[in-house]
Amino acid sequence: MLTRTESEQRIARLQDGLKEKGVDAALFIYPIDIYYFSGTRQNSVLFVPAEGKPRLMVRKSYFRAQGESVIDDTRPFPSSKEFPSLFPPQVKRIGFTFDVAPVQQYQYYARLLPGVEFVDISSLNRELRSVKSKLELERMRESGTRLCGVFKEIPGFLKEGMRELDLAAEFEYRLRKAGGEGYVRMRAYNQELFQGLAVSSGAGNPGFFDGAVTGRGLSNASPHGASTDTIQANVPVLVDYTGVFNGYIVDMTRMFVVGRLAPELERAFATSLQIQQHLAENLKPGAVCEELFAQAAGIAESAGLARNFMGAPGENAKFVGHGVGLELDEFPVLAQGFKSPLQEGQTVAIEPKFVLPGLGVVGIENTFAVAREGGVKLTDLADDIVCV
Amino acid sequence: MLTRTESEQRIARLQDGLKEKGVDAALFIYPIDIYYFSGTRQNSVLFVPAEGKPRLMVRKSYFRAQGESVIDDTRPFPSSKEFPSLFPPQVKRIGFTFDVAPVQQYQYYARLLPGVEFVDISSLNRELRSVKSKLELERMRESGTRLCGVFKEIPGFLKEGMRELDLAAEFEYRLRKAGGEGYVRMRAYNQELFQGLAVSSGAGNPGFFDGAVTGRGLSNASPHGASTDTIQANVPVLVDYTGVFNGYIVDMTRMFVVGRLAPELERAFATSLQIQQHLAENLKPGAVCEELFAQAAGIAESAGLARNFMGAPGENAKFVGHGVGLELDEFPVLAQGFKSPLQEGQTVAIEPKFVLPGLGVVGIENTFAVAREGGVKLTDLADDIVCV
User: What sequence ranges are listed for the domain Creatinase N-terminal (chains A, B) (predicted)?
Assistant: First the structure.
């Protein structure tokens, strides 16, 4: 549960950001943004002036929001007529999340507030959210513990001849019993993920997903994750899953094989571990995101695996780590073009992976917190390939 | 798999709609819209001139899209420089889905195409999609058969004392093994659903979800669906799940109870069946959506259950059925304000439900196709309450 104190701290940081950008207020309409500041994800709109108290206006369910929101001024959504009168006249520039707000919503609020200029505060919002509080880090550690508990059970049910889909079903069943909430929020407009990927011979298929691995999936309509291909001896099995608990996501990958892996795959996996270790050691405040990516790509290149790094040759993803928290695709991103320095308390899923066409996919992924001593692993389970 | 012929028919219907609205072309950026016309859901942009051939421009994965798309002109996404030159100069007004396109995406494309006016074709797009082809109706019937297969197994695992979450996990496990794709697409910007609801004592909680039932869920961050409450004797158990196969969703609800239901609940359930029967009989081309809703509400009122219809008293949802197909919230909607007549081939989930505070929630839901002889049930399983 979000405390009133922590909500106030989050609002205060937002207000500092608004003032710095010369924006008079923020208007949030996206559920998880509202949850972050208020403690409720009911269908609502959150108004935060750059100075003064926030106001939560609830469409549905007001009853439930009253019990969850820590915003003092929580009220039913006003009529369209009343709505403009709730905005102080000094609000001339209002911040809005252009990254996720559909044009129709923007037009609706712009019509309600004539003369007010809407400005994009997507980056500010994502930057604020990227730095986790002590409470959030505890939540994420708890998510990590629960997800690792499910990963530990894999050797008990992974069998040669089962479909990737059967492996997924067994994993997801245990994840759900452990309290997994299932729905994985992503901010990018064209991304979607059903919990994770349990993939083996289908792992090397390129796909729409902004990651190293997409999987073949079950149809062209749902082209990601497990397929009906069967798991065969000596073919790497990559299990890349999220765990969502109390809204907080962690993301991890482990490798399994029935039998043994080819030496090329073993060697590529060792390179994944080497990259992970380098990045974890350097996951400190001040480290520059794109420099970490360049270093990771450099290690892959030294190992003669540049073409295979983070995707099938020619379809390589251009990152090696991504922020994670209430959404799977948070800031920061360890990628070319991200020039910002890491901050203490950010949480990053580091996932060096290699696609070796004809052989399979190997890699590792753990969620880390950025700390002065280097990355603190929140998904605390041995990294080794498990042979069953 | 979408055939080339059917894709051409869909494009032709869209082009008729564009011409009728005086729009020169459409630009789709939303994955499932693109899938509907092209057969691929890879990360792409689809351009459809009001006259002439469509063009699919693929960001990721071009390799995979080549194997899936039935659009002749399928090519890699062009550079920003090249992009405008691909648009014929006579394109002055371009249709865009303002309902789902984020402001940032709109601004991006508007910058690339200066002087072009963007107009909202959300309704046209949804209207076209609402009428299913023979192929789509077969797909949905297949989804119905598979989902019913899982519902049939419920009496085998539903037990007194298990958590709502355990019931959900058992159901979802079997759904996944049956080939369920899991990710349920919704168009509304603030809605999300993790597959469905397995709810009993938590069923009556109001919530954000635009439906009669939301469930308590596992946390304030994920406040829908199963909770950790246990299933108790004589308390109704409502299982409301979607099944997604080949992208096509069906939606159904059945009632279960360990023991017996109170007479008030039995009576409310009988009223649900009565409403369903009335609507199914009248689910014919030409029937007006809002009149069907009014008739349903009238039957509820005659039974003395107006306050309990489609939600907890004071939190009642204002509809009794919704279109379903590639998305869970398609057109048509059986609700006040929807004045359009039904069309043959539309598919509608009809879900009369009653929330009786302190007693529980009962109701029924089936997915029907609109036909001349009245609704054809695509979720072909007995409607009765199952006592275990």
Answer: 10-131
Q: Do A326 and B221 touch (CB under 8 A)?
A: yes
At B61-80, the pLDDT tens digits run 999 999 999 999 999 999 99
CATH code: domain of residue A262: 3.90.230.10
Question: Distance between CA atoms of B312 and B290, rounded to whole angstroms?
Answer: 21
CA-nearest of A172, A239, A171 to A202 is: A239
Which ipTM value was assigned to this complex?
Answer: 0.97
CATH code for the domain of B77: 3.40.350.10
Tell me whether residues A98 and B120 touch, CB distance under 8 A: no
B196 interfacial to chain A (CB closer than 8 Å): no
Nearest CA to B43 out of A65, A328, A167, A186 is that of: A186
Same domain, yes or no: B147 and B55: no
- CA distances (Å), origin A374, targets A254, A274, A321: 22, 15, 15
CA A282/CA A294 separation, integer angstroms? 13
Picking from A113, A129, A145, the residue at the C-terminal end of a domain is: A129
Identify all chain B residues contacting A315, using CB atoms and an 8 Å cutoff: 60-61, 63
Domain count for chain A, please give it.
2
The yes-or-no verdict on residue B172 having pLDDT over 90 is yes
A367 and A241, same structural domain?
yes
DSSP string, A249-285: EEEEEEEEESS---HHHHHHHHHHHHHHHHHHHT--T
Specify the range with the lowest mean pLDDT, choosing from A46-55, A259-268, A307-316, B279-288.
Answer: A307-316
Judged by DSSP in three states, B152 sits in: helix
- Considering the domain architecture, whether residues A110 and A204 belong to the same structural domain is answered as no
Where does the pLDDT of residue A189 fall: very low under 50, low under 70, confident under 90, or very high at 90 and above?
Answer: confident
Same domain, A124 and A136: no
Joined tokens for residue A101: 């707000």
Q: Tell me whether residues B172 and A168 touch, CB distance under 8 A.
A: no
> Token digits for A332?
């920061």
Question: Do A179 and A67 fall into the same domain?
Answer: no
Cis omega (within 30 of 0) for bond into A332: yes
Residue B166 and residue B208: Cα distance in Å, rounded?
23
Helix (H) or strand (E) holding B335, with range, is: strand B330-335
| A152 and A30 both lie in a single domain | no
Closest to B356 measured CA to CA, from B265, B257, B273 = B265
Q: Are B187 and B280 in contact (CB under 8 A)?
A: no
Residue B111, C-beta contacts closer than 8 angstroms, at least 6 positions apart: none
Q: Which of A97, A129, A161 is the last residue of a domain?
A: A129
pLDDT band at B315 (very low <50, low <70, confident <90, very high): confident
Residue B111 sits in the same domain as residue B145: no
Q: Which of A61, A310, A327 is most worth mutating to test chain B (most B CB atoms within 10 A of its CB)?
A: A61
Whole-number pLDDT of residue B53: 97
pLDDT at residue number B205 = 86
Structural domain of A333: 131-387
Q: Check whether B1 has a pLDDT greater than 90.
A: no
Alpha carbon of B266: minimum distance to chain A alpha carbons (Å):
27
Same-domain status, B318 and B199: yes
| B39 interfacial to chain A (CB closer than 8 Å) | yes
B3/A contact by beta carbon, under 8 A: no
